[in-house]
Amino acid sequence: MRFDILTVLPGLLESPFAHSILHRAQKKGLTEIFVHNLRDYSSNKHKSVDDYPYGGGSGMVMMIEPFAVCIEKLKSEREYDEIIFMTPDGVTLNQSLANQLSSAKNIMILCGHYKGIDQRVRDLYVTREMSVGDYVLSGGELPAAILVDAIVRLIPGVLSDETSALSDSFQDDMLDAPVYTRPADWKGHRVPDILLSGNTPEIEKWRFEQALERTKARRPDLLE
């Protein structure tokens, strides 16, 4: 799977993609992540990518031309399954959407900044608008990193344990059960005996019951 991310601040994305699972996925050749600096596609001698909004108002708006030039160049080289704009007014990212997108081959992600991007970019090019929550961030770079992480970990071969992603929270519309590791007894706080029993069917039953109770208590909306 290939990701092309368009941003005015490529430095914000260097660290998230250079470590841990995302880094290993790239080294294995399971995903490619390319970050494009929109200033490289500006025809302005100052390489500016924003201007004052028509009609007045506060803030600056990202111009259509740098986006359009970069998008058209990338689209001339390959077909994209999705061109996604990260925005607070988009559909909220959830596990179901991440599962859907994990089967794509090429995804382009547009990162806004300042007051937003020219609406014509959204009208002409964007196929999905996505949010990571009901709050406003300084730009779309961190949401883009979240989206890539949520998708890449679902690609077969990325996680060392293929079943790990299938048991994550939200995969079955429930939160995950509590997890424990060594030592079995830490200052009198013991791991539940069932997890030490070796009785796999009973352990799975316990995990399901715990997941159900946790979901009822913390996210009952998932069970509706």
Could you describe the 3D structure shown?
This protein has 224 residues and is α/β, with parallel strands linked by helices. The chain contains 6 helices and 10 strands. It has helices spanning 20-27, 64-77, 95-101, 119-124, 141-152, 200-218; strands spanning 2-7, 32-37, 50-51, 61-62, 82-92, 106-111, 116-117, 128-131, 185-186, 189-190. Strands 2-1-6-5-8 form a 5-stranded parallel beta sheet. A 3-stranded mixed beta sheet has the order 3-4-7. A two-stranded antiparallel ribbon has the order 9-10. The radius of gyration is 21 Å and the shape is elongated. The mean pLDDT is 94.
Entry keywords:
19% strand; 3-stranded mixed beta sheet; elongated; 10 strands; 5-stranded parallel beta sheet; alpha/beta; 29% helix; 6 helices; 224 residues
Concise account of the structure shown:
By secondary structure, the protein is an alpha/beta fold. It is about 30% helix and about 20% strand. The chain starts with a strand and ends in a 6-residue tail after the last helix.
Strand-helix topology:
Elements: E1 2-7, H1 20-27, E2 32-37, E3 50-51, E4 61-62, H2 64-77, E5 82-92, H3 95-101, E6 106-111, E7 116-117, H4 119-124, E8 128-131, H5 141-152, E9 185-186, E10 189-190, H6 200-218
Parallel strand pairs: 1-2, 1-6, 4-7, 5-6, 5-8
Antiparallel strand pairs: 3-4, 9-10
